[in-house]
Amino acid sequence: MKEKMFRGCGTALVTPFKDGAVDFEALGGILERQKAAGIHFLVPLGTTAETPCLSATEKVDILVYTKECCPDAKIIAGAGSNSLTGTLENIRLLTPCDPDAFLIVVPFYNKPTQEGMYQYFKAVAESTDKKIVMYNVPGRTGSNMLAETTLRLAEIPNIVAVKEASGKYSQIAEIIRCAPEGFSVLSGNDDETLSLMATGADGVISVASNIAPGPIVKLVEAIWADRMDEARRLFHLLLPLYRNCFVEPNPIPVKAGMSLLGLLRNELRLPLTPATPSTIELMQKTLDKLEL
Q1: What range does the domain containing 33 cover?
Q2: Which residues are designated catalytic?
Q3: Is residue 148 part of a domain?
Q4: Are strands 74-78 and 21-22 parallel, antiparallel or unpaired?
Q5: pLDDT one-digit tens code per residue, 56-81
Q6: How many domains does the chain have?
Q7: Cβ(133)–Cβ(6) under 8 Å?
């Protein structure tokens, strides 16, 4: 049987800032906390990392630092854009840092056709020997990659997974049902982790695991072991965190929560702004209930 490259919980890492610059000291602490929790893989330079607001030098420095801190971790580096040219430039920039795979989002704003999506991902895959993880998130991109397109792309040898955040259960279930051997289906929404993994998904790329990596790792591993009573208990414990991490645009709430835990400064780059007082209060109540 062809082994799946990505399974379990992968954290879509935030980028900590201090006085406008990347805070590598804080990032080191965050990464050590992820390792201690037994996280299964890491995803720097995604949406949660505020990557559109990072310079090319910062992207390279963050990826190099992540690999230095976590040499044994599998790493999927975000490299997508809304143009083939931009995405290939990102891949050329980051390939020397040697990530295990690139996370490539469906091109945003352009609203391509299904054939356009297919040709785009095919061209990306053909440009590199690295593995490709596709990312379908219609709420941010404005277009949904259908199951038929995903499955067609899954036949390309170095396209090894999809992060599915369409929120369309029947669509994702069809991908799980028909995916070729060795192709991973990962939930892109924390609150769908239990339902999708119970259907056969392989894990989750999580925002909430920036805050609670340990409990989310335990949830995933309980599902793997078919300990469903434990999995349901953990899921319901985590559900308020899952919900509250998105009361404002990601990563505003998660950075507020992490600042309350002393992991980073509550600092973002424009056009994102720090959480409102009501969100900070909500996140404090959420953390108190989790006893983190």
Answers
A1: 8-225
A2: 135, 163
A3: yes
A4: unpaired
A5: 999 999 999 999 999 999 999 999 99
A6: 1
A7: yes
